[in-house]
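Issue: ligand-bound run for MRU - logging full I/O for the record.

Environment: standard queue, default settings, no custom constraints.

Inputs:
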Amino acid sequence: MNDTTVPETLAYTNGRLVLIDQTRLPGELVTLVCEDVEQTHDAIRRLVVRGAPAIGIAAAYGVCLAKPANRAGYLSAIERLATSRPTAVNLFWALDRMKAVVESTSSDDDLAGVLQAEAIAIHDQDRMMCRDIGRHGATLLRDCHAVLTHCNAGGLATSMWGTALAPIYHLHQSGHAIEVFADETRPLLQGARLTAWELSQAGVPVTVLTDSMAGSLLRTGKIDAVIVGADRIAANGDAANKIGTYPLAVLAKYHDVPFYVAAPSSTFDLSLANGDLIPIEQRARIEVSSPHGVCVVPDAANVINPAFDVTPADLITAIVTELGVVESPDTEKLARHLA
Ligand code: MRU
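Outputs:
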C-alpha cells in the first residue's frame, strides 16, 4: 500500500513485473508475475493490467523483460507489445519513449540499465501526474458531494490515485464528505468489481448502479457531477473512454450536470484531428454472450462488443490534466494547454 491507501497495481522487482490480477478482483487479491515480453503482452491483452496509464507503464517494464542478443531484439519486443491493445494511446506513448532510448543509447553494454531507468521514470512521472490531477480536479469538485463515474480510472488503472478518482481521493483525504456512484460498466464490470473495490479499500463511500440506472439518478438530482477517465483524446478534445461513457455525457448535458474528463497529457493524441479517427478495440463475443461463464445470448444471435466509445468535446464541461483545467475544450485551447 502507498501513502494514499490505494493498492499498488504494479511493481517491478528483481527483474520481474508483478501485477495485481485485475481479472480476479474483487473475489481474490492475487498477483501475477511476468518474466518475459510474451507474458506481459498476454497480461495486457487479457486485462490482468488495464487502464490507459497502467498499460503504458506495464509495457515499458515489459521491454525491460526482453533479454535480446542485440538492440534489434529490443525493437522487436517494442513492436510486439504495441499489438497488445489498440485504443489507449499511453501504450504507444510509453513504447515510443523506450524506442527513443534504444535508438539514442550508443553502447550496447549500457542499454538494459538505461531502459530500466526510463521505465522507472515513466512510472514515477505517473505518480506525480495522479497527485497533480487530484489537486486540479478537486477545485472542480469542491462543491460536490455525490459524483458519478464510469469504468475504473483509479489507482488500479494507474500507479497511484488514478485520474478520475484522484480528485475524489484528494477531497476525501482533506476531510471533504464525498461519495461515489459507480456504474457497474458492462460487459466486464470494471466499475462494480474494481472502482467499488478500491474506493472501499480507501474508505470512500461508494454505491454501485447498473449502467441503465444513471439516467434516473441524474433526473432526480442525486448527482452533482460526472467524472471519467480517457484512453485517447484527439486534438479537438473528443475523448475515447470505456463503452457507455458517451451516453452518460449525453445524459449529463440533458440534465445540466457537469461532465468532466480527467487524463494525463500522455493520453492526448494530437496527430488525430477528431475522435472519429480513434481506433476502437473490438473485443470477443464471449465477454457479452457468456458473463461469468453463463450463456445469456442464443448462439444464433450476433453480438457486438466495442470496448470504447467517443464523447464529442462539446459534451465535456472541462478536461483536467496534470497541467491544470481546460474548460469547454477545443483544438486551440488544448494546443495552448499542452504546449
Ligand atoms: O478496457 P479497460 O478496462 O482498460 O478500460 C479502461 C478505461 O476505459 C479507463 O476509463 C481509462 O483507461 C482511463 S484509466 C485512468
